[in-house]
Amino acid sequence: MYSVLQSVHSYWAFLVLIVLAIAAINAVIKTLGDKEYQATDFRKALFTLIVTHIQLLIGLILYFVSPRLQLFAELGMGGVMKDALNRLYLVEHPVINIIAVALITIGYSKHKKKLTSKAKFKLIAIFYSIGLVLLLSRIPWGVWLS
Hints:
Keywords: Membrane, Transmembrane, Transmembrane helix
Oligomer: single chain
Structural class: mainly alpha
Transmembrane segments: 12-33, 45-66, 86-109, 121-141
Largest sheet: none
Distance between the termini: 21 Å
Order of helices and strands: HHHHHH
C-alpha cells in the first residue's frame, strides 16, 4: 500500500505543479493586462484548489503510513533533525507544503469576496505564486526525478 500511495503522490504532484503554475501565471498576466475576470478564471482557481487539496490528503495518508515515521521514536526529534534527508521527509516537506496549501486556500477564499477583476486576479496571483514557490522549494528533487 505504501509504494502505491507513494507513486500516486509523486505523479499527482506533476499535475499539481502544472495546474498551479497555469493558474498563477494566468492571474499575473491578467492582472497586468487589466483583463476581466471570467468563469474560466474561476474554474482554473477552483480546479487548482481541488487538486492541491487532494494532494494534501494523499500526502497526509502517506505520511502516517510511512516507515520513516518510526524514526521519531527511534532517534528522537534531535536525531531526525540532524539527518538532512529525514528532516526533509519528516519535517520540512510536510510543514512547508501544508503552509503552501493553506496559502492557496486563503487566496482562493479571499478572491471570491472581491468585487473587481483586478483585485481578484491580484489575490490569486500573490497567494498561488507564493504557494507554488513553497511547493517547489521542498520537493525532494533527487529522489522524485529518478
